[in-house]
Amino acid sequence: MICPTITHNEDKKTVVVTGGAKGIGAAVSRLFSRRGWNVVVCYKSSGDAAEALVSELGVERTVAVKADLSAFTGAAEVRRAAIARFGGVDVLVNNAGSSEYGVLADMSEEDIRRTVGDDLLSAIFTVKAFYDDFAFSRKGSIVNVSSVWGICGASMESVYSAAKAGIIAFTKAMAKELAPSGVRVNAVAPGAIKTDMLSRFAPEELADIIAEVPSGRLGAPEDIANAVYFLASERASYITGQTFNVSGGYVI
C-alpha cells in the first residue's frame, strides 16, 4: 500500500462524484458545492455538461476529469487529478452508470460488458484507486449509487439489475472491510427519477410508472442528492453497510 504523499488541507473538504456532470450526479455535485466542498466532477462522455457545471460551481473549487472508470487506469487517473488539485479526498460518490433496455436474448456481449463495466466495475475500480487514501487517513465516507432494481430486479433490464445488486453486495463487503479504519460505506437505491434514463419512455409509459408510485410522482435528482449527502455526513456517523431505498414507496 502507498500512503498519499500530499498533505490534505483540513480546512476544506473534497468530494469526488463519478458520473457527476448530469442527472443525479450533477445534483450531488451542486449540493456538496453549496455546502462549501471542493468537487471533482468525473465524466465519461458528457464533456460539455461537465465544463458547464464547473463554470456554474466555480473553477476555484471544482474540477472536471474525463475517465472511463470501467478500467482501473481510468479510476487511477481520477485519483491522481483529485490529489494533485485538492490534496486529498474526504468523500467518494460512485454514481457512474448506464443502462441497456431490452430482453437479455437481444443484448450483445458488448452491451452486457459495457453495462457491467459502467454500473459495477466502475465503483469497484474507483474504490480500489482511493482505498489507501481512506485507509491511511482513517476517516471518510463512500456512497455508492445502486437502484431499486438491484433490490427487486426489473424485466427488460436484467443486466442492469444484476450490476446494481452487485453494488449493494459490494457496499456491504466494503463496509465490513473498511470499518476498522474508520471509513463508512453505504449505498442509495433510487427509484424512478426524472433523468435522461427515463427519456426512452413515452409519456403514457411514464404515466403508468407514476401510477405505481405511492407518492404519486417521479423522484427528482435532488431527492437522491439529499440522501447521499446525509449518508456522507457526520450525522450518519453510526451508519455503515446500509442501502437507503429512495423511491417514494415504489419498492418497499
Automatic annotation (TrEMBL):
UniProt keywords, alphabetically: Oxidoreductase
Pfam family, one: adh_short_C2
InterPro entries: KR_dom, NAD(P)-bd_dom_sf, Sc_DH/Rdtase_CS, SDR_fam
Molecular function GO labels: glucose 1-dehydrogenase [NAD(P)+] activity
Residue span(s) of domain Ketoreductase: 13-196
Record carries keyword Oxidoreductase: yes
E.C. designation(s): 1.1.1.47
Family: Belongs to the short-chain dehydrogenases/reductases (SDR) family.
Protein's name according to its UniProt entry: Glucose 1-dehydrogenase
Species whose genome carries this gene: Candidatus Protoclostridium stercorigallinarum
